[in-house]
Design a protein that fits this description.
single chain; about 45% helix; about 375 residues; alpha/beta
């Protein structure tokens, strides 16, 4: 193993995606994903019990697929990383349990890492090492956060977060009101391209002079859009779906980008990284680019496939932990559904001696 290019497998099961990624340093070798989103679509949202069962069924096949794609044996790995939190408790437990089993049987160090920090670190796989500090805007179905990371492996500082609905959650709820199905982000993004973003003046939450400068609120926007749609329907008028989608989307991305650029200026950071599932939104990417260029800020956004939940991001952070000689997690590692972003990983209380692993356990592993 080259000191700066450890070979690490990452497991991500915080929600409805079973993701397994393999990286060598900052080079992506495999990114295998098994999604249960189609099953959840029938219920209009993620059902935790269904997600957990889907992870159980997909785990071993997805790991096998990733190893085959990377062209390596499990024994070649230098470490195993897994999302320890935050996320759905049951879903996280499946990934953590699998990672502990592989780490034990292979006699490899285990790294329980933070889901949000992983979303930041994945950008290394596309745009090279992260600047220090890194300013990150993370937007997904469960999170809308502004984070400053002087060291992605040990020092992540929250500047602001949503006080109610996350951006992705608001997209899903408005899509439901418009009868567009689940998930809502992609379909609203698509329809918005054919609508007028200035057609309806929806509110921009927490943008007043006395409001918290880096916090987000999308609950009021969601309610405003829903009531506007209900009023149209009550009056027997046709709802201009494309204009509603465009105007709603503009309200969300306007607030996100405005606050992110302000944070960069206030903190003296000349770049901005955007991650999380909503970072795949085309209007968010375009408006962020426009505003960053105007402010002299360099924008870093991973390709859409690396913005949604995936194992590659977990492997990327795990590889950084190994490269920087961070202490591995204990085999007593547990899932933490509310793991704070200030804890990029869960270090063990003491070093484990893995020499007790029986050779028969290793031999039972597929190569």
């Amino acid at each position: 193993m080259a000191a700066d290019e450890p070979l690490v497998l990452g497991i991500e099961t915080s929600c409805d995606e079973t993701g397994v990624g393999i990286v060598r340093g900052t080079t992506l070798l495999a990114d295998a994903v098994a999604s249960s989103v189609d099953t959840h679509a029938r219920y209009g949202g993620v059902v935790p019990e269904i997600a957990s069962r889907a992870h159980l069924e997909a785990m071993v096949p997805t790991i096998e697929r990733a190893l085959k794609e990377a062209g390596i044996s499990a024994r070649d790995l230098d470490g195993i990383a897994v999302t320890s939190g935050p996320g759905l408790a049951g879903a996280l437990l499946v990934g953590v349990s699998a990672a502990k089993a592989y780490a034990y049987a292979l006699n490899k160090p285990l790294y329980g890492v933070n889901h949000l920090a992983s979303h930041i670190c994945v950008d290394q796989l596309e745009h090279g090492p992260l600047p220090e500090p890194t300013m990150a805007l993370l937007v997904s179905g469960g999170h809308s956060s502004l984070l400053l990371a002087p060291d992605i492996t040990s020092d992540v500082r929250p500047l602001g977060a949503t006080i109610d609905d996350a951006a992705g959650e608001a997209f899903d709820k408005i899509a439901r009101v418009l009868n567009l199905g689940f998930p809502g982000g992609p379909v609203i993004d698509r329809l918005a391209k054919e609508g007028d973003p200035k057609a309806i003046a929806f509110p921009r939450g927490l943008t007043g002079p006395r409001d918290a400068p880096y916090d987000f609120s999308f609950s009021g926007l969601k309610t405003s859009v829903a009531r506007w749609i209900e009023a149209k329907r009550a009056a027997g008028e046709e709802v201009p779906v494309r204009d509603v989608a465009a105007s709603f989307q503009e309200a969300v991305v306007d607030v996100l980008t405005r606050k992110a650029v302000r944070a960069c200026k206030d903190e003296g950071v000349d770049h901005l990284m955007i991650g999380g599932g909503v970072a795949a939104n085309s209007r968010l990417r375009a408006l962020a680019q426009e505003r960053c260029e105007r402010a002299g800020i360099r924008l870093r956004v991973p390709r859409p496939g690396l913005c949604t939940d995936n194992g590659a991001m977990v492997a990327a952070l795990g590889a950084e932990m190994v490269a920087r000689n961070r202490r591995p997690s204990d085999l007593e590692l547990s899932a933490d559904s509310s793991l704070p972003v200030t804890e990029p990983h869960v270090p063990g209380k003491h070093e484990h001696d893995h020499d007790h692993v029986h050779e028969i356990s290793k031999d039972n592993l597929y190569s």
